[in-house]
Amino acid sequence: MPLIYQIAYVLLALSAALTLVRALKGPTNFDRLAAVEALSLTVVGFLIIQSVAREGALFLDAALGLALFSFIGTVFLAYFLGEGELHE
Amino acid sequence: MSEVTHWSEWITGACFLLGSFLFLASSIGLLRLPDFYVRMHSPTKAATLGLMFLALGSLVSNLREGTAAWLEDLLLITFVFFTNPLSAQMLMRAAIASGVRQMPGTSGKPPSREVEHVGKAEPVPRSDKEG
Q1: Which residues contact B63 (CB under 8 A, 6 or more apart)?
Q2: B73 at A interface, C-beta within 8 A
Q3: Distance of CA B56 to the CA centre of its chain
Q4: In angstroms, what is the C-alpha Rg of chain A?
């Protein structure tokens, strides 16, 4: 079972590295924002695996809070980047 | 772990492997696809499904242990299922509104105001709110 956790950690770390490359070289700011949101979702997945591997339910609280604030931050940054033209 | 692994732990492990593989596929798509609008569907669909699989594995593990934390996993699955496509939609709308360019072979245009108001009903006068 710890081998599966380690494989999942390696896959998530590779995913975070590739997402970070997109966040660094993205042509527009929307690419960077999408990449940062995907990166925070990767961190949420990492926290979920940690909560099972270490048997601590506090990691799940942290994961839920991070997902919530990632959503709020993405919506507000999209609002500001689109210059307030989201609702037509 | 010295004791015999329960069968539900294999479900947890399979969910974790599938979820992290989906995360990897989503990041590869985010890196390699050519356009912003094309690129946007990979962190929307694949990462949502990957995170739901990870939370499902944690839910199975918490159900086996008998703790009440599976409710939190269920909350996380529901929350991600509803909010991640919503934030992607907001991001795409902002990109359309600020004129991010498409790749050359794209068929179809982003919805403009004329397209949105074509319908069976009579045209609604929108002269009060221009701009």
Answers
A1: B8, B70
A2: yes
A3: 16
A4: 15
Would you tell me which residues 20-59 of chain A have a C-beta closer than 8 angstroms to some C-beta of chain B?
A: 21-22, 27-28, 30-31, 33-35, 37-38, 41-42, 44-45, 48-49, 51-52, 55, 57
* Of A74, A19, A40, residue with least CA distance to B32: A19
Helices B70-97 and A58-81: angle between axes, nearest 10 degrees: 10
Nearest to A25 by CA among B55, B30, B25: B30
User: Residue B112's pLDDT is what?
Assistant: 53
Residue recorded with tokens 């500001």: A80
ipTM: 0.88
Chain A interface includes B89 (CB < 8 A):
no
Interval B75-120: pLDDT, tens: 999 999 999 999 988 888 888 877 777 777 777 666 554 444 444 5
